[in-house]
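Quick review question:
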């Protein structure tokens, strides 16, 4: 069965095993980074290099109560306002993005 990453805002993150977050990288650590969206900030452990200030989509899985990045996609060139409008339209008709 394929893995499905559920798109979440940071304040919506629960105990799901696989999630996807879109936000801005605001701080870098040795093996982690902080990502922020309009609802909050969270630390994600990562073996991948990311740049502070970039907007990214992070596909994560929960490992020992910590989120671990499995895929990081640079979205810096994407129009996030347009993405949010499309997401709202999908939600209105009951389709998950």
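Suggested answer, residue by residue:
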């Amino acid at each position: 069965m394929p893995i499905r990453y559920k798109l979440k805002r940071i304040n919506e993150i629960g105990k799901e095993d696989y999630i996807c977050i879109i936000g801005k990288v605001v701080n870098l650590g040795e093996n982690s980074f902080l990502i922020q969206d309009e609802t909050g900030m969270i630390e994600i452990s990562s073996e991948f290099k990311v740049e502070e200030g970039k907007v990214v989509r992070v596909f994560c899985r929960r490992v020992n109560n910590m989120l671990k990045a499995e895929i990081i996609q640079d979205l810096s060139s994407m129009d996030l306002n347009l993405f949010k409008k499309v997401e709202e339209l999908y939600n209105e008709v009951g389709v998950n993005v």
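Why it works: The longest helix spans residues 80-92. The beta strands are 6-7, 18-28, 32-37, 40-45, 55-63, 66-74.
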